[in-house]
Amino acid sequence: MIVQLSSGKTIPVEMHKVRIVQKAFLVPIDERLKAIEAGGYNTFSLRTKHIFLDMLTDSGTNAMSDNQLAAMMVSDDAYAGCESFYKLTDAIKDVLGFDYVLPVHQGRAAEHLLSKVFIKPGDVIPMNYHFTTTRAHFEMAGGTVLEIFTDEALNTQSTNPFKGNLDLQKFKDVIAKYGREKIPFIRMEATTNLLGGQPFSLHNLREVKKIASKHGIPLVFDGSLISENAYFIKQREKGYADKSIQKIITELMSCVDIFYLSGRKSSCVRGGFIATNNKKVFEDIKPWLPLYEGFLTYGGMSTKEIEAMAVGLREMTDTNVAGSAADFVKYFAERFIENGVPVVTPPGGLACHLDAKLFLPHIPQSQYPAGALAAAVYLASGVRSMERGTISTDRDKEGKEVYADLELARLAIPRRVYTMSQIEYAVDRIKWLYGHRDLVKGLKFVEEPPVLRFFFGKLEPLENWGAKLAEVFKKEIGPSF
To answer: Which of 48, 172, 211, 284 has its Cα between 20 and 30 A from that of 320?
Structure first.
C-alpha cells in the first residue's frame, strides 16, 4: 500500500508481518570479486552464500503466506485423483473462470505443450513481446515469433502507462500478409517481462480480441504476472480505479481462449498450469501431459504446491498482495531517478530495470553492456541482478549476433521479501557505481552454449575492469563492505 507521510512524501508500507526470517550475508568486496570471476561474470553462476540481496528474479523466490503454508500440510498425495487438484480447479474456476485445467511443473512446460500441439513448421506467432523460453519453444517447433509491440514500447524514458500494448494495425497487417492458416494463435503477455515489466490495457486486449475473433484466431494469455497487470489497470486505466482486482481479472479473462502461467510469480508457488473453456483444446493437450509432465491431477507439481497455489490464486486478488511488488518497484525506481540513475519508466511489474545503454554508453552492444552492468552491480553491492539484453538473445542460425532491442539489468523484487532499508542500501551502492561507471568495460564470451546462453555462458572482462573497480571501491567505501 502506498501511504503519504505528513511531509508529503509517499512510501510503500508493507501490509504483512514478518514471522520467520532467513539470515543474510554481505561478504567483503574481495570475496565478491573471486565469486564473480569464478562464475564467468554471469550472475546465474553465483552461489547464495556470496549474495546479500538476491534480485535475480521474482520467479519462485516470493514469500508464501501463512495460509499457503498451512494448506501444504493437508495435501493429498494420491498419484491420480488427488483431492488437492480439485481445490486448485475450484480456485481457477472462481478466480479465472475456466473449467478445464492442465497442471504443469512451471510456465515453460506450458509453453512446450502449447508448441507441441498447436505450432507447425512455417507458422507465425504474433505477440506483444517475446520471453526467452517462449521464443525458444516456439522456434524449436518450427514457428516464427513476430513481435508487434507499439512504437513507444522501446522508449525507456517514457510516461506511457501501457507500453505492453500490442499494435493493432501491425496485427491486421500480419493477418493480411500470412493468412489465418499460418497463425495458430496470438499471445499476450501480462506483464511484458523483457520490456521492463510493462502492462497492457484492458482496452487494448479487447481490441486485440475483436480482430482475432473476426479471423478465428485463438487468443493465448500468459498470465504469470496477471495480478500485477490488473493492479496497473486499476491504477492507470480510466474507469477502473474503483474496481476490484478480481473484477478486472474477470474482465481480462473474458477475452481469453487459452490461459497459462508460471505460478512462481503472482501466486507465489512453484508450478503452473494451462486452463481453457474449450474442451477440444483440453483434449488435444491432455494425452501429452503424462508423457512430459505427470498425471492429469498433478502434472509435475507436488501436491503441497498444488494446495498452496489454490490459496495463492485467491490471495493474489487482494489489492495489497497484487501491489506488494509493484509498489516497491515504483519506490525503487523513484529513488534512482532522484539520484540521476537511468531506469526504465514508467516503473513496471516484477523489477526495477537499470537502462544499461544510458548507464554505460561507452560500451557497445557487441561487448554486452547489460551483462557488464549486472556484474558491476554485484561487485559494488553484493546485490544479484539479471542481464536482460543481448546475452539473453541467442545468435541467429548463421551464428551471427542478434542485438537486443533493450539492454537492461533487472533488479527483481520478490513479493514480501525485502525491506525499505535493503532497497535504500541497493540505491546507495548503485548510485556509487553510477558515479564510477567509466571504470566498467565490456565482456566477451569464453564459453557459449548454443541455446539460452544466458543461463550457463561464461564471460571475462575486457581490460580486467572487475579488479580495478574493486580496488577503487576498497579505497572509497572500505575493504569490509
So the answer is: 48
Any catalytic annotation for residue 132? yes
Hey, which residues does 276 pair with through a beta bridge? Answer: 100, 258
Closest CA to 190 of 151, 228, 153: 228
pLDDT of residue 177: 98
- The yes-or-no answer on residue 79 being catalytic is yes
| Cβ–Cβ under 8 Å, residues 406 and 156 | yes
What's the distance, CA 165 to chain centroid? 16
Q: In this structure, are residues 307 and 283 in contact, taking their beta carbons and an 8 Å threshold?
A: no
Q: One of 135, 265, 441, 453 is an active-site residue; which one?
A: 265
Of the listed 222, 257, 327, 394, which one is catalytic? 222
Q: Fill in the amino acid letter for 251.
A: E
Confirm whether 187 is a catalytic residue.
no
Cα–Cα distance measured from residue 270 to residue 108, given in angstroms and rounded to the nearest whole number = 12
Catalytic residue among 388, 410, 416, 453: 388
Pairing relationship of beta strands 408-412 and 351-355 according to DSSP bridges: antiparallel
| Catalytic option among 100, 118, 131, 328 | 131
> What's the Rg (C-alpha) of the chain?
22
Among the listed residues 143, 167, 144, the one whose alpha carbon sits nearest the alpha carbon of residue 154: 167
Q: d(Cα 204, Cα 176) in Å, to the nearest integer? A: 20
pLDDT on residue 105:
96
Instruction: Collect the ranges in the chain with pLDDT lower than 50.
Output: none
Q: Which among 34, 66, 79, 210 is annotated as catalytic?
A: 79
Domain boundaries, given as residue ranges, for the chain: 2-58+321-476, 66-318
pTM of the prediction? 0.95
pLDDT at 19: 87
β-bridge partners, 103: 273
Among 98, 336, 454, 473, the one annotated catalytic: 454
Query: What pLDDT, on a 0 to 100 scale, did the predictor assign at position 178?
Result: 98
- Active-site annotation holds for 388: yes
Q: Could you tell me the CA-to-CA distances from 334 to 54, 196, 298 in Å, in that order?
A: 20, 15, 42
- Does the fold of domain 66-318 match that of domain 2-58+321-476? no
Residue entry with cell 509491440: 149
Which class does domain 2-58+321-476 fall in?
alpha beta
Tell me if the domain spanning 66-318 has CATH number 3.90.1510.10.
Answer: no
pLDDT of residue 456: 97
**Known catalytic residue: 444?**
no
Nearest Cα to Cα of residue 438 among 474, 458, 404, 463 = 463
Continuous segment of H or E residues that includes residue 72? helix 66-72
